[in-house]
Amino acid sequence: MSFLTKIFFIDFYKALPLAVIGAASSNFLINNMLTFRFNKLKNLSLLIGYLKYLLIASLPIIANIGITTTFYNYVARDTYIAQMAGIVIVYAWNYLASSSFIWSKSI
Q: In sequence order, what are the residues at sequence separation of 6 or more whose Cβ sits closer than 8 angstroms to the Cβ of residue 19?
């Protein structure tokens, strides 16, 4: 988020969706390499898993954007605090859903 707002001078409201999708994408790759390394997805399964992950994470992504924007507008005009509020609220959903639907043994 800071990179987009301070280096590319993109305003908060336009940078937020890009930052959240970028974070979700990197989270998927980190989970695949570390958290679920014993059931790591490869090749086509990696691409299918990534698309499933984005689909499953779409509700929390939308919630994150809404929570972060609301927090930024009404509580604190601090991008770091607003982002942390959004991240904390959607963290549990992302982990539970991805461990159940993406890296389960049925893939």
A: 1, 4, 83
Contact 57, 94 (CB under 8 A): yes
Question: How far apart are the C-alpha atoms of 33 and 41, rounded to whole Å?
Answer: 9
SS3 letters across the chain: CHHHHHHCCCCHHHHHHHHHHHHHHHHHHHHHHHHCHHHCCCHHHHHHHHHHHHHHHHHHHHHHHHHHHHHHHHCCCCHHHHHHHHHHHHHHHHHHHHHHHCCCCCC
Is residue 106 pLDDT above 60, yes or no?
Answer: no
pLDDT digits (tens, 9 = 90+) for 32-53: 999 888 889 999 999 999 999 8
Percent of the residues in the chain that have a pLDDT greater than 90, as a whole number: 22
